[in-house]
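Following up on my earlier thread - several people asked me to post the actual chain instead of describing it. Fair enough. Here it is, all 235 residues.
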Amino acid sequence: MSPLPRIPLEWEALPAKESARRAKALFEEFRRRRSVRDFSPRPVPRELVETAIRIAATAPSGANRQPWHFVAVSDPDVKRRIREAAEAEEKLSYEGRMSSEWLAALEPLGTDWHKPFLEIVPWIIVVFAEIWEERPDGTRGKNYYVRESVGIACGFLVAALHAAGLATLTHTPSPMGFLNRILGRPANEKPYILLPVGYPAEGCTVPDLERKPFRSIVTWSEPDAGDGGSGPPTQ
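Reply from S.P.:
Thanks for posting it. Predicted structure:
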């Protein structure tokens, strides 16, 4: 296969102060992002959902295989079926599959197997990971770094939805094979994550969580200021 033709990079050189301003503004915006389980039935324009998915699809992927498929659901009957199937799996998990340690970790969040928001929310986006690609001649094409690629795309999607003023929740009822059946997706696609998308309900509250201290999540490895060499990693 011949190399792809090369095109100029679309890149904007910014002054240092403007770069810092944009980065800090973005941090302040995303610092407020929270997962929501209490949604309003207020309609969300399809255009917002479509644009968020378009942003997600700009994510990098292994060998540019783009191994993802997004199903956006607003049909009330389909949402009801998803809720019923998700709750059935979640009930089994909460009542027997989950370890006591796992349940104890979830207890402060106040979650259980009931998922009424799956019917209340105006949209559900289900992201599928394309394990392999079916070629026009019926043969299979291998995809690379599928989970990593789809995970990055989902991060883009959550960020895009938040930037559009929408709330969401990363929901992974396990196992999720019911989503293939309900949504008619082929066997080469595996459900990766389910995102209810909408506006927070009036008076919505979220747990008073604390994020880990920044110093505990980053290690810096930089040249030593004294001799210009590489010093030991610091936190």
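The longest strand covers residues 189-198. That should answer part of your original question.
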